[in-house]
Give the backbone structure.
Amino acid sequence: MRQSLDEKVLPLGKPVIKLPDRSVKLTLAELAFVQSIATCHIAFSVTLACALRCAHCIVRAGPDKAFTTMSVDTARHYARQMKDLAEHGITNISCTGGEPLLAPKQVGILVDAAAEQGISSGIVTSAYWARRPESARRVIKRFRAIKEWDISVDAFHQEFVSLDTIQNAYQAVKDAGHRVTVRFTHSDPPSAADIQILEFITTLEDANFTSQQVRGLGRGADLGVACSHTGNRWMKPCLTQGMVIRYDGSIAPCCLNLIEERQHPFQFGDAAAQPLCKIHDAYLSFPLLQLIRAIGFSECWRWIGEEGLRSRLPADLPHDACDFCSLIMRDPVVSACLTRKTSDPDMRLKIAVAVKRILGETVMLSSVLNELADCADRIQGFEEAKACLAAPAGNSAS
């Protein structure tokens, strides 16, 4: 199945939906589906250790990062919460890194506990472990609870992982009856090596694959990779696939540009000290995050202009929503402004109503209504918001 370099596909735990390039429109139903994933999927970044040390790695993973590996006791702590997570509405988890299979015991604990509660599991891996077909089959058999396998491939990986190894892993997953997706990262414009890899992917049986550009983050920044100025403009909503629980218990808002960035407004708690369900509720109630999930960055851009802060940003803004997000959220003055704007009680209520109407989610609206109940007479639109909460999804009060 051949796909263009500009097409992207959803990651683990959901049927594949292609996010078309700028020449094709995404339907509202498809967009709503993509936006909803964060409500039912969480990821565990179990380690930054990796058998590879690729020049483009956004988290600077490598063989020297074993000290970052999640402890077995911590994995068990999360595993004991899988029943609560299932009741909370989590239907999918995924393991990432680094190379998660360098922490095999921890991954096994997480995915086996998830499977016992009916939660589907996926993994993102370089497939370094599949140098021979028999070793590939052993790994797949050992982690039989993992039903979704995302195998990364790109020109930078080829120094460490051959295309034959990728094929061994791909075939072993297929033979086991699991879903496999090849994650293809390419330069812009694509290099000759990129084209060769793309041609290889098309030879794989019934190949499903995603594609994304190399990002100028982590070691990628050392390559001088520029932010994207092609593709969809950043006015579109944030399409985070859900919160990421890092190896140290801290929480990332997404699995892309802010996955290992720590200086930004999106702080949801400490997974070592708080229940994951509580953190997930905080994630789904965080005003600034929910604003960009529901309607995108247009309001943020307006506020930045009103506060006279546009001079802090480059004149040539990146088009990619993730690049734009990390640009504004890592600026301490700009992000403080956006946090202040979205923390106002009236604004939080407006955002919560928008999230209910657009995404059909009630966590934030319930939280804000409860918090503001004692001052309801001073909050414009409070009663209308209560009616919105009570209205069926898709038929919220106007």
About this structure: Confidence is low (pLDDT under 50) at residues 1-24.
